[in-house]
């Protein structure tokens, strides 16, 4: 009987312990899944969120605290937002806090910005909060030094400051600051290039601003140009004179090349004439070497008499003497060459 009572006591104790453990596990699981603190905070803030919504977000591994805080902030600021939209934007890798802050800033400044537009701008990679700030408080974009050449060939170096305001409706698909700078640079080059002299631009630098603004350079961009101010205009190089100098130098080199070509042709022609002269001289010497043989043959054959021969010798001696006196003898010519 005693052993039976002890066995009954032991089984009831084990059952009690198991029950307590199960209750503790259930309580821990409940508090792990159900964020009572966030639910109560949202409730007392006037931005109540259902318990099922909070549990669902926790199961989807969403940062419940950040989503609820952003939702409470938006509701307190008077925004008509849905916590499901914030949850969807977070799952799309968007910045929920930045979107809510941008919506609050736009609402305070009476800027028409819907929740879907703000989320789309954020997902497009643009800073939606900074865009709203720039829309409220315009920013100044300073261009780099832009070189342009007037019609008189003088280079002008211009620097401009562009005051822009963000255009919320064109943030999606609109180009950014780089396009604004490029278009302003194009307008400066066009204005300076159409000026007759660089002095006209120096006297009236506002011509650049008026021309650039008249072109509507902000079309298709995410900004609206409010004003363009020319900060600095400096005179650069005389490009026209430099180009003329370069052209003159090129013409000079071409003329020198052609003169060198003509000189080389003249030298080649002279060498050719010398070669021909040497060749003719060799032929004459060879022919003169045959004269004694011909004379001997004429004497043997009787075609040339002895007196004729002596007369020819006397004539040749007389000729040599005359050449010697006049300085045209071959010996004098050789000595003069040396």
| Low-confidence residue ranges | 4-8
Secondary-structure element string = HHHHHHHHEEEHHHEHHHH
* Number of helices, where a helix is a run of at least 4 consecutive DSSP H or I residues: 15
Task: Please state the CA-atom Rg, rounded to the nearest Å.
Answer: 54 Å
Average pLDDT number: 75
Give the overall silhouette: elongated
Q: Tell me the total number of β-strands.
A: 4
Structural class: alpha+beta
| Percentage beta strand | 5-15%
N/C terminus separation = 161 Å
Largest sheet data: 4 strands, antiparallel
Give helix % range: 55-70%
Structural notes for this entry:
With 338 residues, the protein is α+β, with helices and mostly antiparallel strands. Helix content is 67%, strand content 11%. The protein is built from 15 helices and 4 strands. It has helices spanning 2-33, 36-44, 51-59, 64-76, 83-91, 96-108, 115-123, 128-136, 177-194, 198-203, 206-214, 239-289, 291-301, 306-326, 330-337, and strands at residues 139-142, 146-149, 154-166, 223-238. Strands 1, 2, 3 and 4 form a 4-stranded antiparallel beta sheet that branches. The longest helix is centred in the last third of the chain and has 51 residues, at 239-289. The protein is elongated and about 175 Å long. Residues 4-8 have low confidence and may be disordered.
Task: Summarize the topology.
Elements (H helix, E strand, L loop, with lengths): L1 H32 L2 H9 L6 H9 L4 H13 L6 H9 L4 H13 L6 H9 L4 H9 L2 E4 L3 E4 L4 E13 L10 H18 L3 H6 L2 H9 L8 E16 H51 L1 H11 L4 H21 L3 H8 L1
Antiparallel strand pairs: 1-3, 2-3, 3-4
Helix pairs in contact: 4-5, 4-6, 6-7, 6-8, 9-11
């Amino acid at each position: 009987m005693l052993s039976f009572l002890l066995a009954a006591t032991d089984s009831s104790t084990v059952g009690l312990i198991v029950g307590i453990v199960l209750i503790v596990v259930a309580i821990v699981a409940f508090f792990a899944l159900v964020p009572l603190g966030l639910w109560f905070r949202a409730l007392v803030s006037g931005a109540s969120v259902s318990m099922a919504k909070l549990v669902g977000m926790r199961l989807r591994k969403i940062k419940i605290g950040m989503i609820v805080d952003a939702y409470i902030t938006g509701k307190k600021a008077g925004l008509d937002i849905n916590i499901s939209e914030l949850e969807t934007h977070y799952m799309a890798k968007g910045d929920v806090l930045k979107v809510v802050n941008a919506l609050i800033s736009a609402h305070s400044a009476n800027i028409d910005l819907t929740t879907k537009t703000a989320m789309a701008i954020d997902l497009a990679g643009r800073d939606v909060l900074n865009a709203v700030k720039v829309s409220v408080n315009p920013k100044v974009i300073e261009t780099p030094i832009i070189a342009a050449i007037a019609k008189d060939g003088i280079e002008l170096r211009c620097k401009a400051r562009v005051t822009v305001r963000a255009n919320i409706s064109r943030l999606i698909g609109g180009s950014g600051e780089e396009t604004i700078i490029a278009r302003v640079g194009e307008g400066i080059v066009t204005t300076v290039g159409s000026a007759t002299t660089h002095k006209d631009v120096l006297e009236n630098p506002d011509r650049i601003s008026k021309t650039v603004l008249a072109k509507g350079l902000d079309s298709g961009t995410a900004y609206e140009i409010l004003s363009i101010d020319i900060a600095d205009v400096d005179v650069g190089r005389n490009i026209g004179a430099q180009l003329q100098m370069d052209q003159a130098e090129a013409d000079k080199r071409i003329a020198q090349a052609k003169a060198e070509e003509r000189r080389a042709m003249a030298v080649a022609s002279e060498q050719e004439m010398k070669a021909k002269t040497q060749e003719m001289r060799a032929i004459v010497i060879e022919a003169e070497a045959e004269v004694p043989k011909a004379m001997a043959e004429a004497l043997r054959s009787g075609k040339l008499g002895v007196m004729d021969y002596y007369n020819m010798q006397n004539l040749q001696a007389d000729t040599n003497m005359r050449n010697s006196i006049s300085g045209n003898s071959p010996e004098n010519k050789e000595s003069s060459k040396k």
